[in-house]
């Protein structure tokens, strides 16, 4: 079968690599792709916001399935428009994608369905938001309602910081995403990223990972799209996984179906594991980035077959197999990220780095200039490694990074610290 993958980041490189390995695949295209994806797929310069152009390409190239990587096209209704054109799509409808597209919608839905989450308020004017924030216990969380590329969240340690974040949202820092905001209580515990495949009625657990959101070592600095991740997540025991499925995933699947907006695709639950149990931080309607990179290296099963089962509504007859190894990824980002990154610098030494045992390198923001590999984004590379333990995977990833010649990049040196501390205490 012929597949078109939409996106250009590290997540899409990992998905492309997994899809390319499927015996079901005839031809893989990616729009627009990147320098790494070009090694496993045919990259095409399509504007993924132009749904009519996508549909025309699919018909011209006999595309059997479109896999949507990022969230923005889904929130914009790409699945609806391609489905209407008779093209099979892996990803939720516009209405179902509101689970990520509007934090306020999701908070209200959780309230109605009894899904455990942080107490909150929704606001469309600054004065009311500030008055509410002042009544909350510090720290308090301020979130832009809409899509903000993972950066529209501020954990305010003081009321002055909360008011500054409120003013930033309503002042246009996050564009239309900040037209409405959500203010939440701060949840204390251990974060985890949990994924499930959903076919509209059945939810199949897809594994868990832990991400590092802050830009710098010691969980300092601004929130980013993610600076590294590892899987499996030790906090997600079989018992905790079942609680997440029973208390969060299955209720939302049933709730969305009951609304007449069934969810199909991958659902990503950002969780806080509190002393009381799992609580939802947010839903995302796509694979996490960089969590996808570690999950795809652990997945034994055919990803394309699993995706088709979700599209066709037959997940109740499907199961997944996983490698026992741990996998860890470290993001190399361009100086300036998560603000304005420095683009156009040359990266050398990837071939040498990829020779480290158990290492795969996924490209996020790269392009080719002849034989030169050029940084072309904020998050640029995902140095990903497997090992018998998180510690071994960590050591291999950093050994590979040491072989990369890119003075203009930076990375965190403590990815996996929580799991590694657990491994040390258990030994």
What would you say this structure looks like, in words?
This protein has helices spanning 10-20, 51-60, 71-75, 78-84, 98-101, 103-113, 126-134, 159-170, 238-258, 291-298, 303-312, 350-353, 390-401, 417-426; strands at 2-7, 27-32, 42-43, 65-68, 89-90, 120-123, 140-144, 153-156, 181-185, 190-199, 203-211, 214-216, 220-223, 228-231, 264-274, 277-284, 326-334, 346-347, 359-363, 366-369, 372-375, 379-387, 409-410. It is of the alpha+beta class and 427 residues long. It folds into four domains: 2-90, 3-Layer(aba) Sandwich (Rossmann fold); 125-179, Dna Ligase, domain 1, CATH 3.30.1490.20; 190-317, ATP-grasp fold, B domain (D-amino Acid Aminotransferase, Chain A, domain 1, 2-Layer Sandwich); 326-426, Phosphoribosylglycinamide synthetase, C-terminal domain (Glycinamide Ribonucleotide Synthetase, Chain A, domain 4, Alpha-Beta Complex), CATH 3.90.600.10. The strands form five sheets. Strands 10, 11, 14, 15, 16, 17, 19, 22 and 23 form a nine-stranded antiparallel β-sheet that branches. Strands 3-2-1-4-5 form a five-stranded parallel β-sheet. It has a four-stranded antiparallel β-sheet with strand order 6-9-7-8, with helices on both faces. The model has no long low-confidence stretch (mean pLDDT 95).
